[in-house]
Design goal:
- There is one protein chain.
- The chain has a single domain, classed as Glycerol-3-phosphate (1)-acyltransferase (3-Layer(aba) Sandwich), CATH 3.40.1130.
- Helix content is 44%, strand content 13%.
- It has eight helices and seven strands, in the order ααββαβαβαβαββαα.
Length: 291
């Protein structure tokens, strides 16, 4: 039986309202980014003498701005969101924050939860009109050569920083299994840094790789950001004979931890900092060679 005309009208009006809210939110986002780049960043550079001090102030400005932005999107009715176990991020130092990447808002949500957070970013963003000023002042790491990224990450991690990395390198393709690059695993192994796993879902999906930024779902999109247990990199290093083998095994496990279909079970089945590495890892090291 077809829905009542009144229901159809209400449905369409709700969708139009969410589209308008999304457009308004992103216009505000662009304005925030421009203000940060043109006004706030020069002020930071003038008042902060040292580069690291400038970066910390800039990162806090990003954190505050994105926190207000996510609240604005919720108030306008563009999205809703749930944050699980956010307190786990409070004491994380010297580690990688790794997350799956279903939408454009993933970086925004995670940075809104962390006043201090470095990030590996696409080099193209360094030339983005709206973002380049704040990205450079925050001293983010451009994804250039692997060696340059590794050196920069090691320096920040050893100073007690935390680095946000999306191991897929781009947004997830809807309906496809996630495919990870090995960069995050290599950084973790070679810098001896644990990984804090973050799992993100959006139901129904919006702002994905296949969707236009102004399009919206038929119902209110709800983001769920779940901060999960840490992965101990030492367990992978101890059970292998080379950094290359450890990185491959860690990357395989990380893909399992970040796969949406694998994360519907309880966290007790995850590989956490309190659990030993699975014995099956030891069986594979004779077949692997140094990468």
């Amino acid at each position: 039986m077809p829905p009542h005309p009144h229901i159809r009208i209400t449905h369409h009006l709700g969708r139009l309202r969410r589209i308008a809210a999304t457009v308004t939110s992103f216009a505000t986002f662009g304005l925030f980014a421009l203000v940060l780049s043109v006004l706030v960043v020069p002020l930071i550079c003038a008042c902060s003498g040292f580069r690291r001090q400038q970066a910390l102030v800039a990162q806090r400005c990003i954190h505050i701005s994105f926190r207000y932005f996510t609240v604005l999107m919720r108030v306008l009715g563009a999205i809703d969101f749930r944050i699980e176990n956010a307190e786990r991020l409070h004491n994380d130092t010297g580690c990688l924050i790794v997350a799956n990447h279903p939408s454009l808002l993933d970086y925004v949500f995670l940075t809104s939860l962390m006043p201090r957070c470095d990030c590996v970013v696409k080099e193209s963003l360094w030339n983005n009109f709206f973002m380049r000023g704040i990205i450079r002042s925050a001293d983010y790491i451009p994804n250039r050569s692997a060696e340059e990224v590794l050196v920069a990450c090691r320096e920040k991690l050893h100073a007690g920083g935390r680095i946000l990395v999306f191991p897929e390198g781009t947004r997830t393709t809807l309906g496809q299994p996630i495919s990870l690059q090995r960069g995050a695993a290599n950084i973790a192994v070679r810098c001896r840094a644990d990984l804090r796993v973050v799992h993100i879902t959006c139901t129904p999906p919006i702002l994905s790789k296949q969707q236009r930024w102004w399009s919206n779902a038929d119902t209110l999109p709800v983001f769920r950001i779940s901060i999960r247990e840490k992965i101990r990199v030492a367990d992978f290093i101890q059970n292998t004979t080379s950094c290359g083998q450890a990185a491959r095994l860690l990357n395989k496990h990380l893909a399992h931890a970040l796969e949406p279909t694998k994360n519907t079970t309880s966290e007790k089945n995850s590989f956490s900092s309190h659990e030993p590495a699975p014995r099956r890892h030891k069986k594979t090291h004779h077949r692997d060679s140094e990468s």
